[in-house]
User: Fold these one by one.
Assistant:
Number 1:
Amino acid sequence: MQNGVMLQFFHWYYPADGSLWNKLKNEAQQLSDMGITAVWLPPAFKADTGGMSVGYDVYDLYDLGEFEQKSSRRTKYGTRQEYIDAISAAHAAGIQVYADIVVNHKAGADEKELIKVVKVDPENRTEVISEPYDIEAFTKFTFPGRGKKYSDFEWNHTCFTGIDFDALHNESGIFKILNDAGGEEWEEMIDDEKGNYDYLMYADVEFRNEAVREEMKRWGKWYLETTGFDGVRLDAVKHISPKFYNEWLDYLRSETGKPLFAVGEYWAPGNLPLMEKYIEATERRMSVFDASLHHNFHAASSAGKDYDLSTILNDSLVNADPELAVTVVDNHDTQPLQALEAPVAEWFKPLAYALILLRKDGYPCIFYPDIYGTSYKDNGNDGNEYEITINPVEKLDKLLWLRTNKAQGEQTDYFDHANCIGWTRVSEEENVACAVIMSNGDDGFKSMAVGEKYKGKTFVDHLGNAEGMVAIKEDGTGDFYCSSGKVSVWVVNG
């Protein structure tokens, strides 16, 4: 996947007007021309809040905007046919499509059940704080609006490990469901955060139930054959036993004969060992988003010149395991006013994108607002309403062009200054070379080598952030420079 670029084709506050699938259909060729080679689409199935839902409060995995359920036929993004048409248009433009897979939990049950549970401490889910007792739980899913089309599987309390609401006593909490599959124990997780972080939200799926696993495999094969996607983004893998995805991915790949790219959302910013532990547990079956690199970007953009740029890649997955690192600048969870809010400041985004687009390692993922921009309103943690504007990243189109046309070949790093770093990429192909330099402090310059074959030639900054030309010396080096707080990418003149 050399020089591939993924685009997260949505954000949390995309308008709930059913337009996203048609937008992709209409703009697929334009995105391809920009250098986008794959799109990650949001959850396409019906969720508890119907046509208003971003999709992570998943209700019916088989309803891709086809049935009148949860007060709407379409999803937030469009209808089933519009979704399929959008995927076809992306394929026609040479773009792969990655489907967002949300199977950790289910929301919006059709019926309640009287079940036996124990209540646990929300901050330590291994600590039981009640005797077993009966509650009424929203754990029965019959999907009357679909009427058993595609699948007659019905979900009940034996399909779940936990729930967060007791309708009998009108009480919220975390309740461990006592059933034959798991008893009083949660599923085994990689991390011991909150004692055990199997439970995240809603009705938590019990993957030790063989019937559940078989239904998930049937659904996955149906979904893939129905829509023809090329890969998957796996939601909330931190809360799902790695054993399930090992089995599920092996099944889909063997049944369909497709390699099926997969990237897991194991969001552990600043905790590289946990991500490496997850990769080991899944035996390298999937890539992982580089949450640690995003953490570095956020910190660097907040600290300004006080951040040591020479350490920007330290403790990142792309540094430790570049083959499986999907690199991001921002996403729908880190954007302003979201639960994991940690946005990268606007001034630093061109530097961050240069670091993921113009280096040889990692599979970069661009965030929708960084191409299209957006404005929205929502309440912050303090209860006050805020209006947020995210502007398109300056010259991101030029960085994409550079990735396609110039950022190839051998890489040499010059991470030797706290406020000014750079690297060169030099291919054997004539005039396919670049010298990248950036500063988070004052104006900077650096002597870097592009090779003796370029001696006597001049380089110019393709981004236009630095004026003039750089002459390459007899030894193949040049004195490249950049402006304060900017990135410059020098390429052969002409």
Number 2:
Amino acid sequence: MAKLKKILAKILAGSKNISFDDFVALVEGFGFRLSRVSGSHHIFIHTSVKELVNLQNVKGQVKPYQIRQFMDLVERYSLSLEEER
């Protein structure tokens, strides 16, 4: 959980240099799960969110606009990090 909070703090501080694997861990920490992979697109779903989260791995990094879109979803649906199991 501490690692996820560090990644979130880095994003909130404005960093656009986020690794794809770290961001996937963060997305899953908010309760999303991988639904399918279509080419380079990783599609995540959440039980209480109507919209899909679409992420692409580009040379080990996540695209900055996809970070912004995800953070907008987190804010719009008032999502929070789930506790570690």
Number 3:
Amino acid sequence: MIKAIHPIAGGIAFACVAAFFGGTVATKLSGSPEAITAVKLAIPWGFFILIPAMAAAGGTGFVQSRDRDDQRIGAKRRRMPFIVANGCLVLIPAALFLANRAAHQDFGPMFQAVQTVELIAGALNLVLLGLNIRDGFISAGRIKDKTLTLRRVP
């Protein structure tokens, strides 16, 4: 059961972060205050999906990997504290701040600055989560390890 829950929960978490990031980028490019407000107010509601998915992925990943010491699992373990800290200390507070500002139609310099930080932190989490997904697929044997090796050309 845990083997089934882990990839599903991880996929849901990744999809949520990607949707939040994509929605933010799309509305920023559109410049529509109504669209920005809609996305910024929707993101905190998405936490009701994201947070349990992240907890389930983290918990099941921890249980599955407790007896393993392969290099890719170690890399996943080392990334997780950064993903969680980035989410809890940067992304969630930024999303709540931006939702509040958007609700009041306050898109001034502070909104723009916090949104820029949010986009950078969101991109970082997407990359780290993507690396974890890749390493999970390789560890599970779902994809081949295509580690780059340098060879001398004769």
Number 4:
Amino acid sequence: MNLYSTKQRWKIFLLALASVIVIITLWYSNHIAQRIREEERQKVELWSEAIKRRAELVVFTQKLFEELKTEERKRVDLLGNAYYIINDPPENMDFTFILDFISNNTTIPVLIYDDKGKLTASANLERVATDTLYIDSLLTAAKSKNDPIVLAEVGQKIYYDDSRLFTQLQGTMNDLINSFISETVINSASVPVVVTDSTQTIILKKGNIDTLAFNSRESMKTKLAEMRAVNAPIEVVLPGQGKQYIFYEDSAVLKQLQMFPVLQLILIGVFLLSSYLIFSTFRKAEQNQVWVGMAKETAHQLGTPLSSLMAWSALLETQGVDKSSLEELNKDIDRLNTITDRFSKIGSVPELTEANMTETLREMIAYLDSRVSKKVTITINSEDELLTAHLNKPLFSWVIENLVKNAIDAMEGIGKLTIDLRRENNRVCIDITDTGKGIPKHQWKTVFEPGFTTKKRGWGLGLSLVKRIIKQYHDGRIYVKWSEAGKGTTFRIELRE
């Protein structure tokens, strides 16, 4: 098993483990949120039911109040009749009961004035009779509700109003209605509430809700429609105010709980992505340092035997050794010099010079042509013989050498290799096409990963090195342009002119 396969297996394992952790975390958090959501929903339903019950209680209280009001009115009328009987009594009538009834009146306010309009007596007043403002207001209220009882024989008028109990009950009822609306709007469940009239077009009161949603008629209609879609409005009938509708929706806490799993997933994703980018940066930096260190050390190690070979070549030449043999030896020494130069440039900023691409490629292929299988035909096609690009020849020749050798291995030493040179979109494009076994589409990008190889004895560093040279040192691109199983592969290199 090669390094790339091992790394891929670990990636898949860690990804699967991370996915399981994320799924379990999201499931558990969603489970908790769901439980709280259900409790919140129950709370809202209880609140809604309580609103209905309280509305029924208010209506029931109103019915009791109406009955009490009727009884109080009868009592007031009886008091008036008692005064009238005293004013014009029948013959031989016993006044004991009537007088007891009048004297036992402890709740109905009574004002008695003489024929000059002076207050002569009073009963059941909440304030002292000297408080003229209070007496005037009470007299006005009494005149508006009941006709005065005139005692002509004694020159007096008797004014009476609703009893204090009746007045207190009236105030209590009004307070109960106002309290019902206020507590509905300002609720312990923190539910956004809107109270409308019977037409559902006029807002009477609202609470726990964004007022911006009601800054226009259209926005108000939209908001009410949204609330109606969540919960059916509660219909209530309040005494003296008629039918009203209570709109409500999920609380802000419930809405946040619904978004919590999604927010958590986003946060986990951001954290994982940030962690990956940070560690990937460190990993690449470490790889670069190791890569540069190994390249520099290789160049250094090659330098000593290379110098020795050059000395031996010179010595053999002085001893009259066959020049053709020395020529081949010197070619290999030059090749070793080129390799050493390549390794020494790794990690440094290479010097790029403008070069004729057609001539450069032909020189590189000419060197390789004599060292590859004769059953492989290499063809160079150029649409412009004067096409140039900026490159570092020692490093670029390394790229071409790796690509050509990989292509020959893919063709198993038999086939056709075509190099097409052209200009596209102000870039110099080099297409290297073989007739080998091809590359599966899912591996088009992974072939450039360090450690990826299909060879039993390969290290998987050739294409990784090619990509590094083209991208980092030549500011270019290299990628698999086309590949099909059994037909071949095309690698494309793009360089700036």
